[in-house]
Amino acid sequence: MDYFDYESIAREAGISEDRLARIVATMERDFPHDLMMCELHVLRACMAVRDGQITADQVLATSTTAKP
Measured between alpha carbons, how far is 26 from 46 in angstroms, rounded to an integer? Predict the structure, then answer.
């Protein structure tokens, strides 16, 4: 974590460390050369889970199926 404190938001959202690691890994695949964009998308996903807009499982499912 260099740019955004997504870990505290993930804790607020009740996202387990394992799930957070999977979300981070997914975003790293989507943004392999841009750490800031990767962390921004992790932060936004955690905030959406925290705010009840989506579940962590949906984040992972959406992220893994978004690319062909």
Answer: 13
1 occurs within a structural domain: no
Which residues lie closer than 8 Å to 65 by C-beta, 6 or more apart? none
| Digit-coded pLDDT (tens) for 10-36 | 999 999 999 999 999 999 998 999 999
Q: Which helix (H) or strand (E) element contains residue 9?
A: helix 6-13
What is d(CA 2, CA 51) in angstroms, rounded to the nearest whole number?
A: 23
Q: Which residues are CB-contacts of 44 (< 8 A; sequence separation ≥ 6)?
A: none
Return the amino acid letter for 15: I
Instruction: List the domain range (segments joined by +) for residue 44.
Output: 6-65
Supply the pTM of this predicted model.
0.88
